[in-house]
Each structure stands twice: as C-alpha cells, then as structure tokens.
C-alpha cells in the first residue's frame, strides 16, 4: 500500500467518524426537544390577547346602576392597584357580547337613487365601450360640497352599473346628491355639476338631458329639512373621578382594544368597526388629539372621553344602541369612570330607557321617509 492509499484511508475514516458523530448529536438534540418538562410559574405562558370570536348580540337593557354588578362583588377600594385592575378585568367577562366585532360581510354599493339624487341622462349616438367611457371619466366627481355618481345601462342586460372596461353601454346617467350634512344643493353647485357633465358628454358625443334647476334646488331644500330634523349622534361622556387623576393614553388604548376598538382615521379616535369592509364604524371613542400624538403615550394623559353613536349610519337590526350601552358600561368599569351626558347629568338605567324610546321613534320616522337607518341612501344623506 503506497502513501497515497494510506492517506485516503485515513481521510475516509475521519469522514465516517464525523458522520456517525453528527447523527448521534442530532438524535440527542431531537430527543431533547420532544421532552415537555412541566414549566415553572415563571415559564407559564401568558394569557392570549387574541379577540374572542364574534357571536350574535343578545338584545337586553344594559344598566349602570350599582344593583347590576355581579353578585358578591369584591371590595375593590380595599385592594392594591394591580389586584384591583385584575378584578375589574374579571368582571368584564359578564359584559354583553355587543362589544365583539361581528362577522364581516359586504355592504351594498352606493347607487343613484331618485329620492336622493338629481338625475341627468347622457344618450350617445351609438353604444359606448366601457374603455371609452373611462378614458373621458371626469377627474373629480364633486360639485362644490356635493358628490355625484355616474352609471351606465348595459347593452346586453339593461342593468345599470358603474362603467367598467369590456362592457358596452347604450345610455349613461349621473346623479348629483341633493343634500348632505353640509346642507342642500344650491344654484352654484348645480351649475358646476351641469358644466362637468356637459364636458363629459361632449367628449363622448352624447346628448344630455338635465332636470330644471329650480326644481332641483326645491327638492334639495325639502330633503335637507327632513335630514336636519331627523339627524342624531348620541354622545356618552366618560370622565375620571377626582380621587383617581387622569388616564394614560396607552391605558385607554389597551382597554378599548379588548372590546374590539381599533385606531381610527385621525388621532384621538378609536372605532368599533362595522360589519362590511366599507361600512362606517358602529361606535367611536374620541379623546384629545394632541394627547394621542405624544411621543410617549405612557406619559400622555387625558381626563375625559366621548363614546359616540351616529344613529342614521347603522341599521337598527345591528343593535348599535346595545353596543353603545354595553361599551360604555365596560369602559366605565375597567377605567373606573363617571358616566354622564353632554350637560353633565349622570346616565342610569332610567335615562337609557328614555333614550331608547326616542331612538325607536326616530328609526320609525326615517323608515317612513324611505330612508331606513344604515341604508346606502341614508348613509350618503347623513355624511
């Protein structure tokens, strides 16, 4: 055996020994991972913060009275601060399920409505493709403070829809919203609408038919009067007790998140989302925006918040009033807050009963006018 063969044998033996040793080490490593020693108290996993699954609401009358507290309550005033907070959190398990975010579902798309819109027709010389319509689409679909919608009637089915590429349309129409929370359409806004639509029609070689301006303005004012007398946004004030001091913003966010609230579009606004992806929030928790913009939210403090419920925006069937009451009750318990109305009067079970009776009457009136709460037309009107 020459020296080359000897060296090859030595190298082969070393490689074989390394493979065997690595296999033994891997076996020991895997075996160690399969063992599940009982964790010590310090190793015990923390409770999950994942939101609870959505469940249907139970329609019941919530109460802020002391008699509504769980039986045999713990005397919180005699507990240390950490144990007191833990006890309050335990009580929240009894709060109605109205705080859970309900299962998402698509909402109805806003459509031109003869009750809400002034409708103009655009009749082309021949059917138009969706690509051509979109190529001349107005850059802005607002006239002053009022939005307008554009729809096309499909040549194949006669269905009205927002124009899309690949479809053919024999007629177009545009609907200018007659009123919103900024007021009724005026002559200047209607004239701007006519000018925008006329340019759009000229680009498509389409004839136009516009409703009379005086008739549009009169309809708009009548609709605005209905809206003004049937608009409602309920506000529940939560304030700190004198002996308690103020709340850190981080603490407010933490407790609100447990009840389904998420960050809103502007600082100082947390919202309880609606069911649909494009639906407005069911509730809004509003506090000082400057405090919410602080670099350290643990050192940014507030003493007052408002829990707001926009009545016309949410369907009565979703029981937003129940969610409003239950959310206020839960936050008042967890934050140890006083609860009162805009005039500083305490809110109790009797007050909520009266509010609910007035609310039922408002829902009935809106339905009578063809504007049920939460419908696409109603959401547009009260926006």
List its traits.
383 residues; alpha+beta; Cell Division Protein Zipa, Chain: A; 36% helix; 19% strand
Give structural notes.
- The chain has 10 helices and 17 strands.
- By secondary structure, it is α+β, with helices and mostly antiparallel strands.
- The radius of gyration is 31 Å and the shape is elongated.
- Mean pLDDT is 78; it is low at 4-8, 24-89 and 91-107.
- Strand 4 (146-154) and strand 5 (160-161) form a beta hairpin.
- Strands 1, 2, 3, 4, 5, 6 and 9 form a 7-stranded antiparallel beta sheet that branches. A 6-stranded antiparallel beta sheet has the order 12-13-14-16-10-17, with helices on one face. The protein has a two-stranded antiparallel ribbon with strand order 7-8.
- Strand tally: 17
Q: What gap, in angstroms, lies between the N and C termini?
A: 96 Å
Number of helices: 10
- Secondary-structure-based class equals alpha+beta
Supply Rg: 31 Å
Helical residues, percent: 25-40%
| CATH domain fold name of the largest domain | Cell Division Protein Zipa, Chain: A
Name of the level-1 CATH class of the largest domain: Alpha Beta
Q: What is the average of the pLDDT values?
A: 78
Question: At CATH's second level, what is the architecture of the largest domain?
Answer: 2-Layer Sandwich
Q: Strand-residue fraction?
A: 15-25%
Shape: elongated
What composes the largest sheet? Answer: 7 strands, antiparallel
Tell me the name of the CATH homologous superfamily of the largest domain.
ZipA, C-terminal FtsZ-binding domain
Query: Stretches where pLDDT falls below 50 for ≥5 residues?
Result: 4-8, 24-89, 91-107
The run of helices and strands is: HHEEHEEEEEEHEHEEHEEEHEEHEHH
Number of domains: 2
């Amino acid at each position: 055996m020459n020296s080359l063969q000897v060296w090859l044998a030595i190298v082969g033996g070393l490689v074989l020994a390394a493979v065997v040793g690595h296999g033994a080490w891997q076996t020991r490593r895997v075996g160690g991972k399969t063992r599940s020693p009982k964790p010590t108290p310090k190793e015990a996993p923390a409770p999950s913060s994942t939101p609870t699954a959505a469940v249907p609401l139970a329609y019941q009358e919530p109460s802020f009275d002391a008699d509504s507290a769980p039986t045999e309550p713990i005397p919180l005033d005699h507990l240390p601060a950490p144990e007191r907070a833990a006890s309050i959190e335990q009580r929240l398990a009894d709060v109605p399920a109205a705080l859970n975010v309900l299962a998402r579902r698509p909402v109805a798309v806003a459509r031109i409505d003869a009750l809400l819109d002034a409708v103009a027709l655009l009749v082309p010389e021949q059917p138009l493709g969706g690509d051509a319509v979109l190529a001349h689409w107005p850059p802005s679909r607002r006239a002053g403070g009022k939005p307008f919608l554009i729809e096309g009637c499909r040549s194949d089915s006669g269905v009205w829809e927002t124009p899309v590429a690949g479809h053919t349309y024999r007629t177009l129409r545009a609907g200018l919203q007659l009123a919103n929370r900024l007021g009724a359409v005026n002559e200047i806004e209607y004239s701007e609408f006519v000018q925008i639509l006329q340019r759009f029609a000229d680009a498509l070689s389409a004839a136009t038919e516009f409703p009379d301006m005086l008739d549009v303005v009169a309809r708009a004012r009548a609709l605005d009067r209905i809206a003004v007398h049937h608009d409602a946004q309920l506000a529940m004030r939560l304030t700190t007790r004198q002996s308690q001091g103020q709340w850190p913003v981080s603490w407010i966010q933490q407790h609100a998140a447990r009840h389904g609230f998420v960050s809103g579009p502007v600082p100082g606004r947390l919202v309880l989302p609606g069911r649909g992806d494009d639906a407005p929030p069911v509730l809004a928790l509003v506090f000082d925006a400057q405090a919410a913009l602080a670099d350290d939210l643990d050192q940014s403090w507030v003493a007052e918040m408002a829990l707001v419920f926009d009545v016309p925006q949410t369907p009565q069937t979703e029981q937003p009033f129940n969610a409003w009451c239950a959310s206020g009750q839960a936050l008042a318990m967890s934050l140890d807050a006083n609860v009162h109305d805009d005039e500083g009067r305490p809110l109790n079970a009797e007050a909520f009963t009266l509010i609910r009776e007035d609310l039922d009457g408002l829902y009935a009136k809106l339905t009578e006018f063809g504007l049920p709460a939460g419908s696409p037309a109603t959401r547009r009107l009260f926006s």
